[in-house]
Inverse folding.
């Protein structure tokens, strides 16, 4: 289960980004962007997050996950599109020179602190 490692990293990043001047901070929400191809199972991540977040300012924080679609870019004709199936060929010029732009990210976009 690689979600444990991901949860650990996310918590580290979140804790580091809480301003130091806030006394006993409490995080209410963690907004995340997770690519469709990052192969993260949402309920496993939430489960691991809850375990690791215990006794930190992130305890009881809710994970708000935005799933990022897979977008690719054709290097030959500069066309960009969203991939929904396994086909990675450019539908315009039929070239194979296609690179992935989004779809694998796992990142925190923002934290919402309780007052
Ligand atoms: Zn193309």
């Amino acid at each position: 289960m690689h979600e444990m490692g991901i949860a650990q990293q996310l918590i580290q990043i979140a804790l580091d980004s809480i301003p130091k001047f806030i006394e006993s901070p409490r995080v209410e929400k963690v907004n995340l962007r997770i690519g469709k191809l990052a192969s993260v199972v949402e309920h496993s991540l939430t489960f691991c997050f809850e375990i690791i977040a215990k006794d930190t300012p992130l305890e009881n924080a809710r994970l708000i996950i935005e799933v990022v679609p897979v977008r690719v870019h054709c290097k030959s004709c500069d066309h960009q599109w969203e991939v929904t199936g396994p086909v990675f060929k450019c539908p315009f010029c039929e070239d194979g020179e296609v690179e992935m732009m989004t779809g694998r990210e796992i990142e925190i976009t923002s934290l919402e602190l309780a007052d």
In short: The first helix runs from residue 3 to 17. The pocket of zinc ion is lined by residues 74, 76-77, 79, 90, 92-93, 95 (CB under 6 Å). Helices lie at 3-17, 42-53. The chain has a mean pLDDT of 93.
